[in-house]
Amino acid sequence: MKLRLILISLVIVGILAGIGGALTLEESINLALAQSPQVLVAKEKLNAAYGKLGQAKSALAPHLSLEGSLGRNYSETPTISMPPIPGLPTQEGFSLYPDEAANASSYTLSLKQTVFTGGKIFRSLRMANAGYYVAYEDLRKAQNEVLYNVSSAYYQVLKAEKMSALVKENMGILEKHLKQVEIFQQSGLVTKADVLRVETELANLKQAEIQARNGLRLAKLAFNNLLGRGLTEEVNLVEVSEKPEKEWELNDLLALAYEYHPEWRAFKLGKQISEDSLALAYGNYFPNLALVASTGKTITEYPSAGTKYDLDSWRVMLAGSWNIFDGLETQSRVYEAHANLAAMQAQEALLKNAIALEVNSAYFNLESAKERVKAAEAAEDLARRTLRLAEANFSANIGTSLSVLDAEAALHKAENDLWAARYEVELAKVRLNKAVGTKIF
Fold first, then answer.
1. Residues in a beta bridge with 106
2. Interior CA angle at 137 toward 131 and 141, to 5°?
3. Which terminal residue of the chain, N or C, has fewer Cβ atoms less than 10 Å from its own Cβ?
4. Treating both helix axes as pointing N-terminal to C-terminal, what angle do 329-395 and 262-283 enclose, rounded to 10 degrees?
5. How much of the chain exceeds pLDDT 90, in percent?
6. How is residue 82 annotated by DSSP?
7. Distance between CA 32 and CA 39 in Å, rounded?
8. From the CA atom positions of the chain, what is the Rg in Å?
9. How confident is the model at residue 13 (pLDDT cuts 50, 70, 90)?
10. How many Å apart are CA 102 and CA 377, to the nearest integer?
């Protein structure tokens, strides 16, 4: 008992310790998937589709039923009268069974096995099976949406944190420069205008810091909302480390999309359902055949007369039905199924092109973001070197404060562009995962 309490305590401590810890991207996605109403609805629809599939399968199996009754019944007794016979006394009529209420009981065990329906059972089963997998693809689509939204919000928080940190870092650089300019102003090396210009730039950075802080606050609110947490709950995220990644060709990505994209897979299943619906409609032109068998017993007892009837019965039959004329209902169903199938075929090219456009856009956005990172890295390196040179020249009294301010502003922009491009790469990967329909990054 003590050991059990210790283990429970350790588990509780572990959970409490994890609550305040930093969340990884994978943990964030799992939390969102566990509580997403969109995913929960899709799961229940999948369960419903599974039940419908079971109903379709039941048509293949024999149906066995048992019926029974127990009680009393009364029927007026018919009387049979004999015609008069010459030379004999007149005969009164007689009853077939006693004229009283009877104790009655009966049971019937019946078996029905469908033999032929014109293919309707087979088509219905295929449609139910396809419907189940359509529901599964809808679940995958919902999960992909959650994965995309959470991943985007995750990177937006990291990006906002980095932008806020960069503003603070640049404010620190500018405050350091302001102190140096004030010393130079006291020594008569620069004018009061130079001090005011630095103070103006510092005030502008303060506004940028306020905007960055608010952007971070909003990004965290959106993140908490996606995870179903309290909106003001603290958000601590783990920076995603870079990993070696495969370089994908566009044609390979398109092939993957036509294999894994949930909407494309659901469409192909929907097209199959339309084809089976047409065959199902044609099936109404054929007869239905079934094997029917039953066995039973009926017991009738007349207590006053002391009479009891105990009768057994059974039957084995091949039963059939054929709808000869139904007011052109079957013909209209066939016409409707043809039109629905034609509509599905017309939509195929539209959906295929839409998926191709989505994949192409995501792919080229990723390539563009990667190129921007390389260009931004070069610009950031040049801006940092320029700032160091401007600061050195100003310290040696051979450069101006304005040169330092220009260099600092250029560095701030270069750093912002660099980190924006880096996070845009990660966001572009998330979009490409969604466009393809499966995780490739």
1. 69, 298
2. 145
3. N
4. 180
5. 75
6. P
7. 9
8. 41
9. very low
10. 102
Q: Which uninterrupted H or E stretch holds 42?
A: helix 37-58
**Rounded CA separation 88/395 (Å):** 154
Domain range list for the chain: 24-61+117-287+328-436, 67-73+94-115+289-321
Distance CA 426, CA 306 (A): 93
Per-residue CA distances from 415 to 155, 199, 241 (Å): 17, 22, 19
CATH superfamily of domain region 24-61+117-287+328-436: Outer membrane efflux proteins (OEP) (1.20.1600.10)
Beta-bridge mates of residue 116: 289
**SS3 of residue 318 by DSSP:** strand
pTM (whole model) above 0.85: no
Helix (H, G, I), strand (E, B) or coil at 67: strand
Q: Please, are residues 153 and 438 in contact by the beta-carbon 8 Å criterion?
A: no
Alpha helix (H) ranges present in 228-301? Answer: 250-260, 262-283
Q: What is the DSSP letter of 91?
A: P
Smallest CA-to-CA distance from 25 within 150, 200, 180, 201 is with 150
Query: Tens digit of pLDDT for each residue in 196-221?
Result: 998 999 999 999 999 999 999 999 99
Dist CA 298 CA 302 (whole Å): 14
Output the pLDDT for position 82: 66
C-alpha 100/C-alpha 197 separation (Å) is 120
Instruction: Count CB atoms within 10 A of the CB of residue 265.
Output: 19
| DSSP state, residue 21 | S
pLDDT per residue over 71-89, tens digit each? 998 887 777 766 666 666 6
**CA dist., res. 365 & res. 357, Å (int):** 12
Nearest to 232 by CA among 218, 242, 244, 246: 218
SS3 78: coil
Q: 318 pairs with which residues across the strands?
A: 291
C-alpha distances out from residue 5 to 8, 10, 13, 17, 341, Å: 5, 9, 12, 18, 63
Token pair in block for residue 383: 């801006």
Which of helix, strand or coil describes residue 397?
A: coil
Contact 161, 82 (CB under 8 A): no
Host H or E run for residue 142: helix 120-186
Rounded to an integer, what distance in angstroms lies between the CA atom of residue 28 and that of residue 441?
17
A 10 A CB-CB count for 174 gives: 21
